From TrEMBL:
Any single Gene Ontology cellular-component annotation: cytoplasm
UniProt protein name: Type 1 glutamine amidotransferase domain-containing protein
Signal peptide segment: none
Originating organism: Corynebacterium lujinxingii
Gene Ontology BP term (one): methylglyoxal catabolic process to D-lactate via S-lactoyl-glutathione
Amino acid sequence: MTKVLMIVSAADHWTLNDGTLHPTGFWAEELVTPYSVFTDAGWGVDVATPGGKAPVVDKASLDGSAGDADTLAEVKTKLDELAPVLAEPLNLADVNAADYDLVFYPGGHGPMEDLAVDETSGRILAERMADNTPVALLCHAPAAVLATENAPGGSPFAGRKMTGFSNDEERAGGLAEKAPWLLEDRLVALGAVYDKAPEPWASFVIVDGSLYTGQNPSSSQDLAERLVKDLA
């Protein structure tokens, strides 16, 4: 059976450039949709967070602006079903990522706060890249690769084709001016070969060898289905 390690942010806020704390967490669709696609394919999924802390859903991902009513209702139902799993995640520090066929990171602004500087996550990502084993990061989750920027010899993500939540999307969401940094800018500064959809919010997935990235919430289904297709 294919085994997936889903690494989820444990942050419940994002510290803005004025020092205020913007409530956040993981984006609901970006967790539950891939989780459902993977388990429907017969895969096993374990959830881990820094410190084994129960992750918090970003409430904005459940309000009317996050999607149509039918999709949101489905996401909420799936999230309720996953409540027991999310209540007791594994401690990331205790996990052997080499035991998993895929390491998957859902987004939300949470990763901008904790996974971007998490040494354990950074080590896992560097090892996966060195071993050429599958890694997937969705929306804001590519922020986690920033924890590899001081790796010996430089970040293994430099020169790799990637996408992630764009500057245009952050501006449209209203947080760009308050953000301490923007994901697109930091990925480019790291040396990644960044690309994005022609229009904000459109689904966009990039595959570069064993590295899979999706740009935004709309990419959740397409990214997960591509992984199932390729790893089957």
